[in-house]
Amino acid sequence: MRAIALTGRIGSGKSSVARRLHDRGAATIDADAIVHALYRGDAALRDALHHRFGDSVLGPGDIDRAALARIAFADPGARADLEALVHPRVHAAQARFLSESRDAGHAIAVLEAIKVVESGGADPCDELWIVTCPPGTAIERLAARGMTAEEAARRLAAQGDVGAWVDRFHEASRRIGRPRAIAILDNGGTLAQLHAQVDALARHPRDP
C-alpha cells in the first residue's frame, strides 16, 4: 500500500486532491475531521483545552473552534500548546487508519493535514504530496468561504512553506533510513488541470 502524506497551506486545494484520490479508490482521512471528532468526543481533551485557554473556547457540548483558532493563530505560544495537546491524538487516529486501510486491501491511503510534516505525522508515509497555489488565489478562495482577507493572510503566514516541508521530509527520511518521494502539485489553474496531475501521480509514483 502507498501511504501518502498530503499537505499544503490553507486554501491550496488539498481537499480537492483528496477527493480525486478517493474517487479513484484511495482511502482518505482528513486531520481536521479527526480534530473535530476529538473536540466532540474526547472529554479529557476538552478539559485540557478549557484549562489552558479558558471559558471562551467552550461551546454547547463542543469546543468553539473559531474562538480557539483566533487565540492560536494570534499567539505562537498558544498554538504550540494547542498542537502539543492535539497532535498525539491525531497521530494515533492516523495510525489506526493506515492499519485498517492496509488490512482492507487499499492500494493508496492518504493522510491529509496542514501540519503533517512538522508534527511528525508524515513519518509512516511513503510519499509527500504538496499542493501549492499563489497566495492571492488562496486568499480569494478563503474569502469565498466567508473569511476576511486579514484573517486569511494571518493564517497563511502562520503555516509552513514548501521549502521547509521538503527539507523536513528529507531529514526525516534520512533519520528513518529510507528514501521517500516528494511531489509538488500546482493548483493555480483549473480543477481539470489539478485532476490531471493527481491522476498521473496516482498511476506513476515519483521515484524517491
Could you explain how this protein is built, in words?
This protein is α/β, with parallel strands linked by helices. Helices cover 57% and strands 15% of the residues. The protein has a 5-stranded parallel beta sheet with strand order 2-5-1-6-7, with helices on both faces. It has a two-stranded antiparallel sheet with strand order 3-4. The model has no long low-confidence stretch (mean pLDDT 93).
Keywords summarizing the entry:
alpha/beta; 5-stranded parallel β-sheet; 9 helices; 7 strands; 208 residues; 15% strand
Write the layout of secondary structure elements.
Layout: E1 2-8, H1 14-23, E2 27-30, H2 31-41, H3 43-53, E3 58-59, E4 62-63, H4 65-74, H5 76-103, E5 108-112, E6 127-132, H6 135-144, H7 149-158, H8 162-176, E7 181-186, H9 191-203
Parallel strand pairs: 1-5, 1-6, 2-5, 6-7
Antiparallel strand pairs: 3-4
Helix pairs in contact: 1-9, 2-5, 3-5, 4-5, 6-7
Helix content: 55-70%
Our measurement of the CA-to-CA distance between the termini, rounded to an integer number of angstroms, reads: 16 Å
How big is the Rg?
17 Å
Q: In what order do the strands lie side by side in the largest sheet?
A: 2-5-1-6-7
Shape field: globular
Q: Could you name the ranges where pLDDT drops below 50 across 5 or more consecutive residues?
A: none
Task: Describe this structure in a few short sentences.
This protein has 208 residues and is of the alpha/beta class. It contains nine helices and seven strands. The chain is 57% helix and 15% strand.
